Structure formats: structure tokens, C-alpha cells
Amino acid sequence: MLRVAVTGATGFVGSHVIRRLIAAGHQVRILARRMPITALTPDRPLEVVLGDLDDEPALHRLVGGVDVVIHVAGVIKARHAAVFHKVNVEGTRHLATALSNASPDLRVIHVSSLAAREPSLSPYCASKRGGEEAIQALANPARLTILRPPAVYGPGDTEIYPMFKAAALGICAYPAAPQGRVSLIHGADLAAAIVAAAETILPDPVYELDDGHAGGYAWTEIGAGLSAALARPVRMIRVPRPVLTAIALGVEAHRRVAGSLTALSLAKVPELYHADWVARGPRLEARTGWKPAFDVTRGFADTLAWYRAIGWLR
């Protein structure tokens, strides 16, 4: 049994991680801005440290006396580039400082993103690379493992819901390079990979993750997975980059007026049309007992079942 501290535990990926940790019998301490009532149930005996990544005393309480720290917290959409930097880079730097003041024997799992490979594409990508560089300032970097997941989906995810909603009507408009390929991973599989990494001393500093589908998916394969899950044909329509750029301009204009927070922005467009979001490098499967359970067909079916169970889709 390990004593594990987790940041970002109340988010989509973090909630999967704490479920996996507790199921494995580990003691879990989480960092949260407010008491996470929905996460505190009889089957989830969590210790809660109230605070955030800017709260130095809270970070010291979080990491004190544990065996492993899993850093999941981060933002994937923001109104300004400065917000990405503040949370994904500076927040991680604050955590690294707290970790350096704790035991150098602490295992640290930093959950980054494939986006960190391409820091010049967008402020988000730059912030994910910056977060990796910040956490590498640990006193004992040999105890650090960086995990780079690709696009993550599954029960609890709201970002991919519009794609399922459109597919349920028989269409799926996707923004991508004509020959673009993308790796995917189900949230439960990512959580299992994170926990496996926390339980193992690993020889490589960085592992890129996927669902075991070598070479990633073409969008035609993603469409086939949607069709199989929905049991109906789904017409895939590629959106040319100039069209999405014009849409992004409109979204940004509306955002400035309404003050809303959206994933789509002009800065996001280069990410979406980058042709290679395929996981490569050392395989976590070869170093641990972890193996992904969901390919895109089973994973999409599982996600669709959740959307239907909560009443989002019929």
C-alpha cells in the first residue's frame, strides 16, 4: 500500500485516478480548492488538503509524509495565454518547490500531454512543455516519470460530447490535416497507466501513451468506431483549415462579448491541423503490468453508454 498525493483529483482524469488508486488499496490525499462533497463517499476514504497550486503551505501539507505524488492538475482551455502559463507552468513550479523541500526519495508522476512535443504550435502546447521543464527541477529527477497521454475520452468527459452529439445525427465534422493521425486513450486506461507508473520504478524519463493501436487512428477509423457504437452510419466531413479559422474568429468575437470560455480559439487551430499526434517511444506496457482495455470501438461504446445514462443522448 502506498500513500499517494494527487493534484487535479476532482477533474475528469483525476477522478478516474482516485477511483483506481482506492480500488488498488492505496491511501489517497488530494488537493482541492473546496471540499469535494461528491468525491467523499464511504467507498472513497480520501484525505483532503484545501488549497491550490498557488498555496505554498497547502502544497507542503499535500506532499508531506507520502510515498508518491501524482500531478494531474492543469487547464486545457483558457481565455488568455497567461492563464495556461500561470497554471500549467507556474503552478507546476510551485509544486516542484514543495517537492524539493520534502523527501528526495518521493516518486513523482507528472501527467503532461503529447502537446508538449510541439511547444511552438500554441500557448497550450508551450505551457505543457514548460510544465515538464518546471517539474524536472526536482532535487532527484531520477524519481520522476513524465507521462504524455494523447486525446483522452470516456465517461465523465464533456469535451468530446459535441462529437458524439453530432454523430448521433449521422454526421461528424472534424478539423484535421488530410493525412492526419491521432492516438487516443480511454480515461480508465489512462488512470490505470498512471497508477501502474506510480507503483513502479521506471528506467525511462518520458512515456507517451495510447490505447495500443499502433500508428494512431485515421479519422476514417474514428468514424467507423462512432458508427459501431451508435449502430448507424456516420458521415465524416473534413473541415478545411480556412473554414475553421473563420469559425474561430467568430467564436473569439462572441467570447469577448459574452465572456464565455470555449475550447476553440485561433490559437487552437494549429494544434487541430497538426498531422502527427501519434504516441511513440518507450512503451509503458513493456515496463509494467499495465495494458489498455479499451480500443476505440469498445471505448466509444462505453462513453456513449454514459452519455445515455445521464440523459445527454437517447
Automatic annotation (TrEMBL):
Highest taxon of source: Bacteria
Entry-linked SUPFAM superfamilies: NAD(P)-binding Rossmann-fold domains
Naturally occurring in which organism (per UniProt): Dongia sedimenti
Span of domain Ketoreductase: 2-144
Protein name as catalogued: NAD-dependent epimerase/dehydratase family protein
A Pfam family hit: Epimerase
